[in-house]
Amino acid sequence: MSDKPFIADSLLDKHALRMLLDRSRLASAMHILVGLLVAGFMSTAASVPIWRGIVFTLGLSAAVLFQMSIARTQSTEEWSDEVFTSIKQRFDMSALSVGMMWGFSGFCLFPSHEPELQLFLTFVMGGMSLSAVGTQGMSLRTCYFSVIPGMTPLGIRYLLEGGLTGFLSGGLIFLYVIVLITFARKINDFMLQAFRLQIEKEDLLENVRRQAVELDEARLSAEEANLAKSRFLAQASHDLRQPLHAISLFVESLPDARNTEMHESIMNRVRQSLDVLTKLFDSLLDVTLLDTGGIVVRKTVFRPLGIIAEVVRDFSLVAEACRVELRIVRSDLAVKSDPVLVRRMLQNLISNAIRHTEGGRVLIGCRRRGGKLAIDVVDTGPGIDKSDRQKIFSEFTRLDEARMGEGAESGLGLGLSIVKRVASEIGLVVKLTSELGRGSVFRIDGFELADTKLIDVQTLSQTHKGVVEGASVFVLDDDPDTLEATELLLKKWGCKVEAAQDWQGFASGAPDVIICDYELSPEKTGLEVISEIGLSVPEPIPAIMISGHTSKELRQVANALGIPLLHKPVRPAQLRSALLNALAMSGKTT
Predict the structure, then answer these.
(1) Hey, which of 26, 421, 422, 580 has its CA 20 to 30 A from 176?
(2) Do 364 and 375 touch, CB atoms closer than 8 A?
(3) pLDDT 10s digits, 424-450
(4) Half-sphere exposure of 117 (CA within 13 A, CB side)
(5) What dihedral do alpha carbons 95, 96, 102, 103 form, nearest 10°?
(6) Model-level pTM?
C-alpha cells in the first residue's frame, strides 16, 4: 500500500468517469436495440397506442445518441477540474434522460390485462437496470439516475392495476430497486478500492522509474567524475613535473657556473620555475577549496583600483617578457565585496590576457553598468572563436599554445573555471565578448557600489606598505629544513628571529608575531600551541598559521580564532604580506 494517507477524490472521480465513458459505448448501442424490441412488442397490445411506442423509441434514441457523443469526444481528452465537472454533469443528464425514457416505457407502454407482455416488459426492464448497475456502478449518482427513474414508474403502474397480483408485483419492483441500489453501492466501493490500488500501483511504478533514472544519472555522474579525476591527476602530474624537472636541472648546473652573471642567470631561472610551480599549486588549491566549500566570503568596502594596481605590479615582469603593455584606467569608485577573492579573479584574468597577447596591450579598468560596477580586462590578442567561448570556462581547457607569448608558460587550464566559480560564490557574473583578430573583453559584473567613506580600516591595513625590518618573530615548525629556510628568509628581511621545532623553546620575551606550522606532531596542532602560548603571555600575540591541509573545518576554526591561514607552498610575497598585516594589526609596523 502507498504511504499516502489518501488519494484525492477528484483523481478517483476522473478515473471513474473515464471508465464510465469507455463502458457506455456498447451499453448505449444495446439500449437502442432493446428499446426498438420493447416498443415493437408492446405496440401489439390493445391498450398501448402505436404513437407511444414511437415517442419512446425516438426519445430513447436521442438520449442514447447524446450519451454516445459525450463518450466518443471526451473519453480520451485531458481534463481540468472545470472540464471534468462539465462532462460529468452532461453525462449524468444523459443517464437521467435514458432512465426517464425507460420509466416512460414502464408506465405508458404497460400492457393492461396481458400478463405475458407484462412479464416480458418487467423482465427486459429489470435486466436493463441490472446492466446499468454493472456498467455505471463506479459512479453512484449516474447509476441512481438510470435505475430509480427507470424502474419506479413500472412499480407504480403495477400498483395502479390493483388486485393482489398488482400489489405484490409493484412491491417486488420497489424491493428490486432497493436491492439494485444496495448492489450498486457495493460495486461502487469495490471499484473505488480497485481504482485506489491501481493509482497507487501507477505511482509506485512511476517512483521506481524515476529512481531508476536518478540512479542511472548518478552512475553516469560518478563515472564522469571518476574520469575527470583521472584527467585531473594526469594533467596535474604532467604540468607539475615540468617546473620540478627544470628546477632539478638548474640546481645541478649551479655549481658549474663560471661567473657571477651565469650564477645569477641560473638562479633567476630557478625562481621562474618555482613561481610557475607555486601558481600551479595555487590553482589546485583554489579548485579544492571550491569543491569542498572551503571558500569563506568576507565582504568589505574597498577601491578596486588599489587591487588592480597591485596585481598589475605583480605581473609587470611577465608582461615585459611577453612584450605586453599593461595599462590601468583610474577610478575612485568603491565597492562592497571580498577583496581577496576579487584579487584572485583578477590575477587569473590578467595572467591569461598577458599570455595570449604577445606584443599587444592589456587594459584594466572599472565602469558603472546599470547601477552596479564592472571590472573589465581588455586585450588586443587574437580573440577567441565563437565555438570556444563557452568551452574555455571548463576545467582543463587550454587554447592553442601558439597563441601565447614566448615568455609565458601554459597552466592547468583551470584559471577561467576558477574565476567563474569564485564569481558565483560572491554573487558576481563573468562575461566574455571577443572578436577574432581584434581581441577579447573579460568582464566581472555585478559589484555593489559603496560610499568611499565606509572603506574598511582592516582593508586599508591589508594594503599597508610598512616594512618588517626589526620585527621580532618566533617561528615554530617540526621540519628542520622548512624551519631553517624560513629563518633565513626572515633574517634577510631584517627580522629578529627565534626558531624552534618544539613550542617549549618559546622565548620568555613575547615576540611581535608567531609563525606556526599546523602539523606539529600527532599529539598537538599549531592552533592548540598558539592557544597555550596565548595563555602564558599578558597580551595576545598576532599569529600566522601555515598548513598543507585544505579542509573546510580547519579554515573555519582559524577564522573563528582570527588567525590567517596560508596554504603550502607559500610564496615569500604571501608570507611578507601576512607578516605586514599582523604587524599592522598589532600597531608595530612602520
Answers:
(1) 26
(2) yes
(3) 888 888 888 888 888 889 899 889 888
(4) 20
(5) 160
(6) 0.47
